[in-house]
Amino acid sequence: CDVCRVFGSPLQASRITITDGMVLEWEKTVQVRDGVVIDRDAETAVPRLKFNYDVIPAGALFQFTVELHDLDDDELALIGAALLDWSSGFTLGGHISRGLGHMRIEEVKAEQINLSDPNDRLKYLVNRKMNPIADWATYFQDYVNTRLKEEASYA
Hints:
Strand 3 (31-39) and strand 4 (44-55) form a beta hairpin. The protein has helices at residues 2-7, 73-86, 118-127, 136-154; strands at 16-18, 22-25, 31-39, 44-55, 61-63, 66-68, 90-91, 102-103, 110-112, 131-133. It contains four helices and ten strands. The chain is α+β, with helices and mostly antiparallel strands. The strands form five sheets. Strands 1-6 form a two-stranded antiparallel sheet. It has a two-stranded antiparallel sheet with strand order 2-5. It has a two-stranded antiparallel sheet with strand order 3-4.
């Protein structure tokens, strides 16, 4: 399946790497929130079991890197659809009903390298330089549109 080829499976290594998010801007305060342990079978709170967790307030800015390795056009369409969707906002993680995990991608810097081109390969191996993609949204939207047209022709 496309998802297995991109994210990996027990039989195949992942071809996407996502780094931990590094905080770039925030209010420099951490909120402490509390919660109770839920017995999922009984669907009730477990008596006298409470916990605290730390939260960074809304508005924090994180930076992370997504590296894609040797993806075909269908896989680029899959990743492109996710990135395009995420740019309008999405949720990640738990406690969403408590207002956590709402985020959006604001700035994307996209670069690529053609490993079959000896000049590109040398530039990357010597200086870790890649070719910038000027308009990431159009770049990925083109892959998505092509894939959607292919699917429509099968219908």
